[in-house]
Amino acid sequence: MSRDIAPFGLRMKADLKERLDKSAKENKQSLNAELIARLESTLANTEKFISAEKAREAAAHARSQIKERILAKCFRDINEGIQVGINDIYLNLSEFRLDEVDEDVFDELVSLAVNKLDELGYEHEFFDASIHVKF
């Protein structure tokens, strides 16, 4: 079997590599596979039509990124609440269109944030497309 994969050296900042390594580990794949999936997803978005298989792969990859974005939004909103002296926030997740996914996918997408909230001792409960976080 001949391989038509050309080696390619890539330099990047250490913090970016750490984030990509973490994402690859969460997606249970190598760093190389993570980078290829991200690049293919980006390029697929520029084509008018993509195959169903590529669409499924792109959606799965986007789901992995949404987890990180939800976590970042959660702690950004908590920090903003702290700065204005409040002890609870309503984390609005409507931008992630979670009302359009089934319950299992919803649980998967919010799991990273919920696990971190639990780990750090925050109380939380769900209301439609938001999470009420108490601290």
Question: What does this entry look like structurally?
Answer:
This protein is mainly alpha-helical. The chain has 4 helices and 3 strands; from the N terminus they run H-H-H-E-H-E-E. A 3-stranded antiparallel β-sheet has the order 1-3-2, with helices on one face. Helix 1 (14-26) crosses helix 2 (31-44). The longest helix is centred in the middle third of the chain and has 32 residues, at 52-83. The model has no long low-confidence stretch (mean pLDDT 86).
Brief descriptors of the model:
4 helices; 3-stranded antiparallel sheet; mainly alpha
Brief overview, please?
This protein has helices at 14-26, 31-44, 52-83, 103-119, and strands at 88-92, 123-127, 130-134. The chain is mainly α and 135 residues long. α2 crosses α3 (52-83).
Instruction: Extract low-pLDDT stretches.
Output: none
Query: What distance lies between the first and last C-alpha atoms, to the nearest angstrom?
Result: 58 Å
How much helix, percentage-wise, in residues? 55-70%
Outline the biggest β-sheet. 3 strands, antiparallel
Number of helices: 4
Strand arrangement within the widest β-sheet reads 1-3-2
Say how many strands there are: 3
